[in-house]
Model the fold of this input.
Amino acid sequence: MGQRLEALSGQALAILFALILGAVVIVAVGENPVRVLVTLLNGAFGSPERIAGTLLQATPILVCGVAACISLRAGLFNIGIEGQLFMGGFAAAWVGFSFSLPPVIHLLAAMAFAVFAGVAWIALPAFFRTRYNANEVVSTILGNYVAVLVTSYLTINIFKRPGGLPETPPILPTAYLPEFFSFSRLNWGLFIGIALAIGAQFVFQRTARGYAISEMGANAKFAEYGGIDIRRQGFLILLASGAVGGLAGGIEALGVHRRFMEGFAPGFGFDGVIAALLANGSPIGTIATALFFGALRSGSLLLEVDTTASREIITVIQALIILAVSAQIKLRRGASDSMAGERRWKF
Amino acid sequence: MPLAVELRSITKRFGAIVANERVNLAVERGKVHAIIGENGAGKTTLMNILFGLLQPDEGAILIDGVPTVLPNPAAAIKAGIGMVHQHFKLVQSLTVAENVFLGMEIRKGLFIDHRAQSERTATLSKQFGLEVDPNERVGLLSVGIEQRIEILKVLVRGARTIILDEPTAVLTPQESRELFQTLRGFVSQGMTVLFISHHLEEVMEVSDTVTVLRLGKEVGVRPIAGLSKAELIQMMVGHAISFDRRPRQKAKGAAVVEIRDLWARDDRLLPALRGVSFDIRRGEIVGVAGVAGNGQAELAEALSGLRAPSHGSILLEGRELVGRSARDIRAAGLAHVPGDRLVRGVDRHASIASNILMGRQDALPWSRRGIIDRSYLTRRTEALMRRFDIRAPGPQSLVKSLSGGNIQKVVLAREFSTEARFLLIDQPTRGVDIGATEAIHAEIMRQRGEGRAILLISVQLDELIALADRILVMFAGRIVGDLDAAGVTEEELGLLMAGVVPERQRDVAGIA
Done:
């Protein structure tokens, strides 16, 4: 417990350090850091609509974050969640506008297709990883570019209305993921994300499979010695991670945009990976970090309206946080013995 | 003439473990000086101290007769000492010459003078017989050539004394012979070589003098001329703590394990097991003796399903184990105490309870419908901690906070609390203090009394003589002796371990 607390306080210190550096940057562009911070907070939490907006932004980051947690736990690194999200989003939208099905069934079918698309998109990297020991970081990250371009090609060349915007037709209302309020597109996806995080945490901590996965990530040789088939399990873990990544896309398509379009969900996959890393690979912790990133995104909208600072300043602050946190992980690794560093952070 | 390197009374501790205890080392200029000892004897620690990677707790370092403090490798390099590590540190995408000069590039103005670097590399490689193409990319080269580049890196930094840590571990026999020629070339040009190894034959072949380390202590320095293999083995394995042979009744049960003509390759794909056959009876301890690296590790891995045998058969109570997974083999009735305890035997960053769970997480009553029964796990762990005298605050204590002996007891507690009929026990007391060693020996005898078939692999002969019913001696992947452990002497075993068997001498000459 003491160690966990120490790790958490370290994380908090890293974020504080990044915010101070961010303040310096804000001063450098001629703005007042306090004013920027107040505007950010106001933009993220200032009214029910804005809180809903923050949660709306946090949802895909959370779901993608859970996808990342799953692979990180096994010592694997699926950085292709962005790609799985695009494929999942496109697949869900396609089912949504192409078929006419009864209400609940239509929604479930579209979600299932999103999951399937995510799995399909990671299947090849997962196969190469387990069969030929090809580094999954490289293969999944390359998949991202292909996914974005393939979905964009399909949208523009096949489904776009002549002369219309670069987007598919809207999905039928039978496939809608229901909203909560009239004033926001905040939808059931948030609860799906929270349920996934809690479920993943439960599996990791309480189940035999979760134990096998965690030990594989902690010491693969020990796991292998104990009779765990680390190749098979690694393959399945990557598929599961991809499935959740695809689901994230489905939630965006069916709950928020209700169609697929170019620039469908920019950066959510990457933000999810970062949220998971920031939470030290803990699904429950990812709920908090996803909220944090969601607030930054949603607060930055008001920032552009109310101050002279541009939205990009938020990207800078985000980058600073990542830098500070990874430096802090590195420091901790140096301080403890060398084996500790191999735990889960071996990309 | 002053000594090239002298270490005086070096002591180095890691927590409770003494890695080097008052070790002396005197290396003459222009000689190949070997340091030999079993794994864990403290060879690498001693060399890391000489190379400035570790600081001694006590003792002095003299280089060319001058007392020297080496706070880091840079200081050691400055003092003319270079080290070639077991694991190479080369940039695969750069050329040979670029690697050799990495960090000390020859410059022409702002730019690297690639031509000068290549020429200088070629000159050095010619001078010392280390044939390389300076402009080839390292990623395309074999391990043997990578080692040459590492040696060139050391030479170009002006080393006059070169430390090689287990240099032949990654080499083929052919590459090893070439390396030895190179080393002889070095000393003929007035340089000094420190050669770390646990392979007798190599040490006898290449060095002038040998220092033997055992359990962190220096047990002797001898000139190679006039030294026999048997004497050297005797020094290496020695008898620091002599255990009394445990009393027992003769095992008369049926064969539980039957191994027939087992062959396996090592990580370099060279044959490491060459047709091994033996039986283990119910209630019998079969010991395996041998100098490390003669196939014992591969035998253990083949039996436990962690390495696929290339040929042969392993029957456990009549069922074939070859070709089955580690999980199936465990289910068929194997328990395994691995030799590399900290790598395979435990997850050091997890709790004792979590380590006890390994391998049985899917079975009742440890888990039910896939959910781990945590209260059962805690209770069982507490019971096992009492039963095996594991000294720790509780089941949630992290394994890394325990002493070596207690970590080994965690492994034993897990493996001996299974229903397995066959116990594979590899180096049960390596790095374990004397009190825990006693307890572990008593536990192994108790397992024998319960009728389990036990294979005990150990580099400590006294341990084998104390516990085993029969002792098999392995040499170069074969069993060269099968002796009744009652009445066998360490001298007899030592001769067999050195490969000195009249009818086998032909093989020895061919393999070494």
